[in-house]
Amino acid sequence: MPLAAAIRTIPDYPKKGILFRDITTLLGDAKAFRKAVDELVQPWCGGKIDKVAGMEARGFILGGAVAHQLSAGFIPIRKKGKLPHRVVSVSYELEYGVDEMEMHEDAVNPGERVILIDDLIATGGTAEGAVKLLRQGGADVVAACFVIDLPDLAGVKRLQALGVPVRTLVAFAGH
């Protein structure tokens, strides 16, 4: 089964005119979930990846599975105020404003090779913020990987402009 077939589309969520791409159906399908994780891992098997960073919240699910498969550590990147220890933070642009994300200040060591994982890339603002946060900690961001790309919103190009290779598994035109 193609991965796209395992992803539910919900029209008019969270607002009218939006087609929300819901990966919970993919996560609930053992074969599709395994296939997605395997495809995210494949380019780095046998290579040196120190950490996998996952963006809150679905990036935790995917990133944890990818980190396990690569025998790498996991870095949770969270919304402001959610981590209990000393943090580093970065502001990033949302479609309608600015927000902040954080990671523990000791989450990454300078020079560590890190892959960023999330379920979907749209405009790329959140992913761009995560890349900047990881680099602030000294990480070498090897790639950013997403199950879903919404190419009309050009988020992949935004990350590529930062020099980050991007891997996506499924593209949905229109948003």
What does this structure look like?
By secondary structure, this protein is an alpha/beta fold. Helix content is 27%, strand content 35%. It contains 5 helices and 9 strands; from the N terminus they run E-E-H-H-E-H-E-E-E-E-H-E-H-E. It is globular.
Q: How do the strands line up in the largest sheet?
A: 5-6-4-3-7-8-9
Q: Bin the strand percentage.
A: 25-35%
Query: Roughly how many Å is the radius of gyration?
Result: 15 Å
The end-to-end span amounts to 23 Å
Question: Total number of β-strand segments?
Answer: 9
Low-confidence stretches: none
- Mean pLDDT rating: 95
Helix run count: 5
**Biggest β-sheet: count, sense, barrel?**
7 strands, mixed
Which structural class do the helices and strands define? Answer: alpha/beta
The arrangement of helices and strands along the chain is: EEHHEHEEEEHEHE
